[in-house]
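Problem 12. The chain below contains 276 residues. Write out its predicted structure in token notation.
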Amino acid sequence: MLDVEAFKENERLAWNLCAERYDRCLTTPFTPFCQELVSLAQLASGQKVLDVATGSGLAALLSASRVGSEGRVVGIDLSDVMIQLARERASALEVSNVEFLQMDAESLEFPTDFFDAVLCALGLMLCPAPARALSEMYRVLRPDGIVALSVFGQGSKVALRAFIEPFIPYMPPTPQRGPSIFGFGHTETLEEALKEAGFSEVRAEQRPHILTLDALEDIWEMVLSLGRLGQMQSRLPDKTREELKQEVLRIAREKYVDPRGGLELPFELTYAVARK
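Solution.
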């Protein structure tokens, strides 16, 4: 049985370890994904917006420009290092209508009916109790408020799955692994979860994306930037880490190299929008 609190603490430590690499490797490639999510939320000037599992703040900062100086955006994340990176980015960009707080998505420290919109970009599938996270999103939304989510699509259509497979022998036993990051890959699964949390007018659809990397070696940096995987490899002997790296590079070389020598990685995402 999963020890939820121990799992969350390990997640915090894992993302703290990988935060700077994640920010460096994935902020630019993930920008189109977040732009699409923010667009689906139909944000308006003056709104209050919550970005759950904000990471280094990408979706929150995109939202801040939509709601304008009269609006307010709050980004929350379990990782204190991610929150610090998000604050630094906001300061560098001179964005003053956004704040970032360390907080658990399953226990939001906000009043009921407080936000006009809630976003969650590629975060719900990381929660050990996603139903609780959705219930909290529902609670803090005002009546008729909108939630917009993105999660990984079907594993067979997300290149990341191929790069996870070499790590499986080194993962903890199944009950301790937490949820599958592809658990919401089918639209009906996400739709049902939103309805069970109380949302209405639920719409979900899968959209294909291509994540491009400039060089073959970049895939290893990307893998190391992904919380649990980065933490896991950091605890392995040097020889094992090198073997994993070579296997990841082999998979990338055989499946995803493009004519210019970079990589084109299919990334199907499931997007969902609903109302309270």
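Discussion. The mean pLDDT is 94. Students who got a different answer should revisit the alignment rule from Section 12.3.
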